[in-house]
């Protein structure tokens, strides 16, 4: 199948899906009466109020920051305080740990529902032994006091130093530690690759259509 045909097929398919979803939502709204709309509004207001209360409680508990622990005792204290904990086991003078810290500082402000913290492995010999920490950095994902998953090094993040914050967020969200509005079945970095591939196909089509055109503006809109 020609690239132009493939592109048109994808566009038409995506348009059809969006139209079907919109039609379904409009149909639902058409079936609602005044009482239904009022109930929906009240329900949403309660949800928003609960979300705001939760945020205030999390901030009061120290969520929203990337906390460095001084000892193992603090680890157990914070795990008891918060249902969702993301703890990075790090080592000083580690480039990989510095890279991970950059992403964690971003995510901790976006996900107040979880506590983000880190502890130097040299200050946590008992924990590293008990949890089987062998690779630095390792991220322990803890829910209700139990470690439910680990992110060991960068292997699960594309096995490179250039992974995105979104990729780390997606991986953490798979454990249920943080809320996630995207598609958990598809890594965000893979979506970018697919989009870039589609854009390259589009460029190829445009270049083919403009073959023989000597205008300097040929690629300005690509």
From TrEMBL:
Gene3D superfamilies: Glutaredoxin
Residues in Thioredoxin domain copies: 71-156
Pfam families for this protein: Thioredoxin
Classification via InterPro entries: Thioredoxin-like_sf, Thioredoxin_domain
TM stretches of this protein: none
Record PANTHER family: THIOREDOXIN DOMAIN-CONTAINING PROTEIN 9
Name the record gives this protein: Thioredoxin domain-containing protein 9
Protein species of origin: Pediculus humanus subsp. corporis
Gene from which this protein is expressed: 8231816
């Amino acid at each position: 199948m020609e690239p132009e045909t493939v592109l048109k097929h994808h566009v038409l398919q995506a348009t059809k899906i969006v139209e079907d979803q919109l039609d379904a939502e409009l149909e639902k709204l058409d079936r609602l009466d005044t009482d239904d709309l009022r109930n929906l509004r009240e329900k949403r207001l309660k949800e928003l109020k609960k979300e705001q209360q939760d945020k205030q409680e999390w901030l009061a508990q120290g969520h929203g920051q990337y906390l460095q622990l001084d000892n193992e005792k603090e680890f157990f204290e914070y795990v008891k305080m918060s249902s969702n904990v993301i703890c990075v086991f790090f080592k000083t003078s580690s480039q990989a740990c510095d890279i991970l810290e950059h992403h964690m500082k971003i995510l901790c402000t976006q996900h107040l529902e979880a506590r983000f913290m880190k502890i130097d492995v040299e200050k946590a010999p008992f924990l590293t032994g008990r949890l089987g920490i062998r690779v630095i950095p390792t991220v322990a994902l803890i829910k209700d006091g139990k470690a439910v998953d680990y992110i060991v090094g960068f292997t699960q993040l594309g096995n490179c130093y250039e992974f995105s914050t979104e990729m780390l967020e997606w991986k953490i969200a798979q454990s249920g530690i943080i809320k996630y509005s995207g598609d958990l079945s598809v890594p965000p970095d893979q979506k970018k690759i697919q989009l870039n591939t589609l854009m390259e196909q589009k460029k190829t089509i445009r270049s083919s259509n403009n073959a023989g055109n000597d205008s300097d503006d040929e690629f300005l809109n690509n």
